Protein: FAD:protein FMN transferase
Amino acid sequence: MTSFKKTARLLLPICLTISGLSLHAQRMRYTFEKGLMGSPFKLVFYAQSDSIARVAANNAFKRVEELNEIMSDYRDGSEINRLSATSGSGKWVPVSKDLFDILAISQDISAKTRGAFDATLGPVVQMWRRATRKGIFPPGDEIRDALGRTGYAKMKMDAKTRSVMLVQKGMRLDIGGLGKGYAAEEAIKELKKLGITSAMMDAGGKIVLTGPPPGARGWNINVSNGSDSLKALQLSNVALATSGPTYRYMEHNGVRYSHIVDPKTGIGLLFHVRTTVISPDGTVADALATAFSVAGIEKSKKYLRKFKGSKVWLVEKQGDRIAEWNMLD
Ligand code: AMP
Ligand code: MG
Structure:
């Protein structure tokens, strides 16, 4: 169910003059929330009437649902799972524009982070999900087998025919590392179509912002290092994504493994605490937060040079101490 809340009256009236008449188009703040893609999605924006706000929120959430049909790895019939089922067939499979675009961004980030980000990790992610459910650590040969069916170089893409080929049998795509950022960007596009220029879409910690609220310098966003440090930022026209094992992890013999996997070992991260990335684009911010979590501070500093306009706050354990790389100060 979508919940709907009108929280405040207008802050700054906008004056429009039509045929000599002066109209005060008052913008009010609206908040809508809905559970989507396994996370709470929160939409906040300013609009001139309840009816525009309702249509806008409906369109935005409908777009996210449409994307979920394509990208969900939980649904057998999703486009991405149908594509995975063709792996090893030697066939080029035509895909929707959304799926092609998201996979193209993913491959670009994989190349620029030397495979720290990898959308072909599906077999490994699935293995860890089963292991977490059962509470049994997977044996070494199972990890090796799953890992043997991954590798972003085994996914070929052809822009001319908008087709994808998964070279090896048993491959499985998982775009959980950037799907929410993409969905947030697309939801915001729906609002823009209706002339809404001040909006925030928080897709489970992957946030896309347009213009600031009326009269404000930006949206108030709190970012944390996962423990003792909190930073209040005022941001607009930018995206921000956070990755961390705060809620989702697997515990074995008192050791906590993140749901983010190191593509080299096939094992959940052990030393990662939290990564926040600010980027011009939501899909990129989301993918980079995941990629930099894997790469760690030193390598991420190198990779970041390839992503203009991005900033990072990365926290990781180094032995007994916590190390931080914070560009947000
Ligand atoms: P995020 O919260 O954006 O960091 O996404 C985490 C999700 O991305 C996991 O639940 C997996 O579905 C997927 N994933 C895990 N490890 C990786 C990785 N190294 N590269 C890309 N996606 C990953
Ligand atoms: Mg991510």
In short: Residues 226 and 246 are 8 Å apart (CA to CA).
